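S1.2 Input.
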Amino acid sequence: MDWVCTVWVVLGVILLVSKLLRFCVPPPLWYFSFRKRRAMRMGLAAFAHEHQTLQASWPGSWVYRMDSEKCVVFVQHRSELSHPNWSGYVVWHDREAVDHIGISQFRFGTQPHHLVERYESVRSRDGGWPAGSIGPWWGKE
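S1.3 Output.
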């Protein structure tokens, strides 16, 4: 076996292991950034608090965007539907608050940036999010 075949085999093994680990490792541990880990943890907690009868699908959840003030997290609903739903959350870094920006399937042209743009335009126009923030309730039952 020459070195080119060896490289392809190693890349295949790395890809397979990374896909398998994605199902075993919780989403807050996928990111090196403390802010992204915290945002994913708070987004999953907000999802669990709002949707007590639903479960989150870890492999389909992700941090969409991060800036100096906030992170945008999308949590996938665990479902038997062919087109899954995602709940969007904005996690603020400076306060213990999470804004729920909506639920979408991201099909027929709807993309994550559409929800984020709508959220930003409403916040800039009205000075706040009409649904209000969720929290601070972390660790309180």
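S1.4 Remarks. The chain is about 40% helix and 25% strand.
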